[in-house]
Amino acid sequence: MRYDCLFFDLDRTLWDVDRNQKKALMVLYGRYGLDRSGVGFERCFAVFERINAGLWDDYRDGKISRETLRDTRFERMLDEIGLSDRALARTLADDYLKLAPTFRGLIPHAREVVRELSGRYPMYVVTNGFAGVQQIKLRHSGLDGYFRGVVCSEDAGANKPDPRIFE
To answer: How far apart are CA 150 and CA 130, in angstroms?
Structure first.
C-alpha cells in the first residue's frame, strides 16, 4: 500500500512531553521558590501532572477552552500545595509556555524515524497542542525541517480525533 502523506502527532509521539515538562517545572519550582510550600519537587510535579492531564482531557473533549487550560493548571496546583496565589499562577503559566517548548527531549528513535520517512513521504504534524508552542518545540528539537506543515486543533476548529482536523 502506498500512502500519499503521513500525519504525526507531536506530543508523546515525537516530543517527550513527560521529560520536558518535568524539566520545565523543575526550573520554575526553583525560580519561584515553590519549596516554601513545604512540598518537595517530586510531589509538586505529581500534582501538576495529574491536574494538567485532566485539563488536557477536558480540552480535547471540548469542555474547556485553551485559556482555561493554560490558566487553571497552575492555579489548581498552587492551591493543592498550599500556595494559593492567582498572580503567581499567571506568571507560572506564562513562563511555562515560554520555557517548556525549548527543551529538546524526543521519544527514543523519533529523529531517526522522521529522517528516514521524510525522504519517502510528505509529512505533517497534526496536534491538539497550541500552535505557537508546537512550532517552538519543532524548531528547538531540530524536527522542523522534516514537516511540510503543522495543523493545530485551534486553527482547524476541531480537536483530534475529530475527522475535521484531518480534512
So the answer is: 11
Residue showing cell 475535521:
164
Cell of 122: 510528505
**pLDDT tens digits along 25-37:** 999 999 999 999 9
Tell me if the pTM is above 0.90: no
Query: pLDDT, tens digit, for every residue of 33-49?
Result: 999 999 999 999 999 99
Residue (of 122, 116, 129, 110) closest to 147 by Cα position: 122
Residue pair 119/47 in contact by the 8 Å Cβ criterion? no
* 124 contacts 150 by C-beta, under 8 angstroms: yes
Instruction: List the strands of the sheet with 6-8, edge to edge.
Output: 6-8, 123-127, 149-152
